[in-house]
Every structure is written in structure tokens, then in C-alpha cells.
Structure prediction request, 394 residues.
Amino acid sequence: MQAFNTTSSAARLLLVTAYLGFISLGLPDTLIGVAWPSVRDFFGRQQSDIAWIFFGAGASYFVSGLLTGKLLKSFGIGLLLGGSSLLVAVSALSYSVAPAWGLFAACALLHGLGSGAIDAGLNHYVANHFSARHMNWLHACYGIGATLGPLIMTSMLVSLGSWRAGYAAVGSLLLLLTGLFLYTRKLWDAPGKTTAAASESEASVGTFDALKHGGVWAHMLLFGIYTGLEVTVGQWSFTLMTESRGMSKESAGMWVTIYWASIATGRVVFGFIIERLGIDLLLRLSMLATVIGTALFAANLPFSAGALALTGLGLASIYPCLMTRTPQRLGKAHAAHAIGFQVSAAMVGAAALPSACGWLAQSRGLEAVTLATIAMAVCLLLVHEALLRFDRRG
Prediction:
């Protein structure tokens, strides 16, 4: 892995920009979870209609992730970040003024296109140039953005009674980040270069060649389940706590914020200890904690909302650790394609599983969603254990 030199002022600025890039990923992603009850009532929709948002963003995110390799080659990562961030900013601002449900749902397409390119591009760059410690810290920045999203939306709902103001505030912040990405676009070239041997190795493996690797499919399945679980807990908890458990909007918004904050905090803390524990052991412990956290939240005991914090801590290291293991497990030649596949698979999970939970909530009640999250957490643990056994035999 090529070391990332942070001694020069340019390199430090680039590192800060990378952190902000991950914040910009998380910031708009979590808004709909808090805004949904208000959006649903404003447009006169049903619970299951949230699927249009998830599937719209998921489909365009999927396409964007698959095309990231070509986009990086054509435009470079700096320009790609700037343009993609602009798309996400426009989508947030468009959400804030959409007069009809069809236009509101269509904004998800822009959101997915921009976010998919940012996600795949930065993850590919970081997995090849940073340690597992830095990968956790960079993904902690996603958690920071994901934490700020519900906080901003809740504050706008409570103080102004307006979900539109929440989207407008986030869109304005993303416009500022877009300016920084465009300003630093040329700085990515020097530290982002790979060796000639690595470039030739990556070029020798085509898309379909990478798909023949069994580990690629196993990783895609893990990412799909993981993001589906993370998004389901984050997006449905507010509605569940306010409409099924009678919690106030302020308290429910606080617990959703704590959930996302625990993911960010966990990634910071685990960044300090991951080299002692090892990636695979940390993953196993994290997945076990996630199973326990989802089960406690489903039990609906006194203070069970606190189980959201445990669930967040359990989820914290999974995405960055799996991403770091990709070049190590599959090799850099396959990883160049596999990371794009993983990001696309992650978005499929993030769209399909929370959407399925919307239909489940409508037909079986909101509490049924908690049982679905337990099933996802158990599946995540079992698939990872199977992959570890495959690694040992290999």
C-alpha cells in the first residue's frame, strides 16, 4: 500500500478534503428518515411510498458506482468529486422546493448519481493509499455527516415546522463543499498515482474477469446486507419510535442522532485499536454486537432506545474494515473493479431492504421492522463467518 504523506501543506489540505468528502456523503443520506412522516403527510402518501426514494437513489447510485472507474480515468478524482458534490447539492435544494410528489421522488435520481461516484471514487483511492486505521477515521466522517443530517432536520422541524428548510440548509452546505472540491481538484493527481505495475495489473483484469472471482460475490453480498441494515435502522427508527412507541419528535430525533453518532464515534475509537485486534476479529465482535443491539431494540424494554447506540457501535467498523480487506483478500487487480461492485451492491441493499421494510410496516405494523433488522444482522454474521472459513481453506 502506498503511504500517504501528510507533511506538506498541499497533502494536509487534500486529507482534509477527503474527510469532508465523506462528511458530504453522510449529510444528505439520513434526512429522509426524520423528514418522512412530514413529507408523507404533506404529499398524502402511504408508508410504503418511501420505496420510491430508496429505489430512485439506489438505481442511479448503482449505475454511478459501476461507471466510476471510467469516470475517474476520464476526469480525475478531483473533478469527479466536485461535479458529483454539485449533483447532490442540487438534489437537496430541489427536494426543498419540489411542489409535487413525483418531482420530489425524482430528486433521488440526482442524489444517487452524485453520491455513487463520490463513494466509489474515494473508497478506491483510500483502500489503495491508506491503512485500515485511516479508513476507519475517514468513514467516521461519513458518520459525522450522517449524524448532522438528522440533527439539522430535527431542529428545522421543531423550530420552524418545516422539512423543506432542512433540505435547503443541507443543500447550501453541500454547495460550499463543492467549491472546495473544485479548488483542490489538481492536488489529487500526485498522491493519487499508482505505480506502473499496479496500473498494468488492474488493466489486465476486465469487468467480467473480476466477477468470476468467488470472493467478489461474497463481498458484494456482505455490503448489500450491511448497508440495508444500517439504513433500515437509521431511516425507520424515528417513525417507529414516534408512531408506534409514542415518543416525542425531539426525543426520537435525539436517539436517531445518537445512533449515527455512535457509528462515527466507533470508527474513531476502532481506528486506534484495529491494528492490535486485527481486522477479522474486530469484524466478528462488531457483528455480534450488532445482533445483540438489534435484539434489544426489538424487545422494547425501558430505555431500549439506548440499544440504538449499541447497534451503531456494532455497525461502525464493518463497512471500512470490509473495504480495507478488499485489496488484501482479492488483490489490487480485482479490487479496482470489486470496490465499484461493492458500492453498487451496497446501494442495492440500501434501497431494497428498507423499502421491503416499508411494505412490511404497512402490512404487519412498524414493530415488524425490528424483527427484520435482527434477521439482517444474523445473516451478516453468518455470511462473514462463511467467508472466513473459505479464506482458511484457501
Remarks:
- The radius of gyration is 20 Å.
- DSSP finds 17 helices and no strands in the chain.
- Residues 9-393 form a domain with the Growth Hormone; Chain: A; fold (CATH 1.20.1250.20).
